[in-house]
Amino acid sequence: MSTNTTSQPNKAIDEQALIDRIFMDESAGEEGFDLVDPPASLQAKLYAIPQASKQPAPLSRATISRWFGAAALVASVVIALLLSPQPAPVNQEALQAQKDFELALHYLNKANKKAASSVTSTINTELERSTVNPIVKTLTNLSSS
């Protein structure tokens, strides 16, 4: 179909004509399917597909350093999570005892204030009765005489 002297556009037309010829008439079956040799350019492209897919893409230094950086970051996060202290389980009985203790201290504070007020009042009354009243009485008697 094609010769070696054809130009690039003619090669593409020949390749397309071959593809159309192979795949257009599916109803003909195998007996209507004549095997033909594809043009050399198409054959080279078809054979290059599996070879190109087997070759891994080359890794650049930047890609490798990014992977090492990400691995180091993940490792440091995992180590930090493993070494961090776990919260102690909450003991309901201990919490209730703490609340009861706070309530008892509150009542003791109120009782202390009442006792202090009562003691202060009693001391003031007794001081007034034992010292202030006799002094006032004595001064009143002296001034009236």
What radius of gyration results from the CA coordinates? 53 Å
Principal-axes shape call: rod-shaped
Number of helices: 4
Task: Give the strand tally.
Answer: 0
Helix content: over 70%
The major β-sheet equals:
none
Estimate what percentage of residues fall within beta strands.
Answer: under 5%
For the record, give the distance between the C-alpha atoms at the N and C termini, rounded to a whole number: 159 Å
Based on secondary structure, the structural category is mainly alpha
Which stretches are poorly predicted, pLDDT < 50 over at least 5 residues? Answer: 1-6
Please explain how this structure is put together.
- The structure is a single chain.
- With 145 residues, this protein is mainly α.
- The protein is built from four helices and no strands.
- The protein has helices at 8-23, 40-54, 61-83, 92-144.
- The longest helix is centred in the C-terminal third of the chain and has 53 residues, at 92-144.
- The radius of gyration is 53 Å and the shape is rod-shaped.
Topology of helices and strands:
Layout: H1 8-23, H2 40-54, H3 61-83, H4 92-144
How would you briefly describe this protein structure?
This protein is mainly alpha-helical and 145 residues long. The chain has helices at 8-23, 40-54, 61-83, 92-144. Among the domains are: 8-54, no CATH class; 92-145.
Keyword list:
mainly alpha; 4 helices
